[in-house]
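Students often ask what a holo structure prediction actually looks like on paper. The answer is less mysterious than it sounds. You provide the chain, you provide the ligand, and the output is a string of discrete structure tokens encoding the 3D arrangement of the protein together with guanine.
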Amino acid sequence: MNSIKNIIDLLKLEPHPEGGYFKETYRSLGEINEDNLIEGYEGNRNYSTCIYFLLTSDNFSALHRIKQDEIWHFYDGSPILLHIISELGIHSKHVIGRDFNKGETPQFVVPGGYWFAAEVINKNDYSLVGCTVSPGFNFKDFELKTRKELISMFPDKEEIISKLTHQ
Ligand code: GUN
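The corresponding structure tokens follow.
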């Protein structure tokens, strides 16, 4: 079996600021002009982008949000647990994986503007997924907030926010 380090090397993954490793695998050549994007985007965006994202069980992907919907696709390893906090502060959990009898799904769409975080379900394991967005990804649309800031936005979610933030 491939070691995690081997997969990171073979797929040329780099550390991601939210935790885990990633590599952009697709960025459309075509662009959407800022005038045709909904309010809040600054500048043009590619039609679509896609990444590999690998998370290990000794880490987690910290709560963050982007403006556009993000489609997660399961590829390999442990099922992955996605935590979603809606703009109104409703927390839900979704398992992306291939054990369909257990209710896992191989795809999940995180709605734009929702806060989300991810954890590998199995111990000593990794999850390899894909994340596709349209309009294409730009770090200008990516928001990571501190534990304190998020708790002040959603005071009744202190426990889960503390677990899913690095600082
Ligand atoms: N490119 C760099 N980081 C990300 C991310 O978090 N999501 C997506 N979809 N693309 C990215």
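The radius of gyration is 16 Å.
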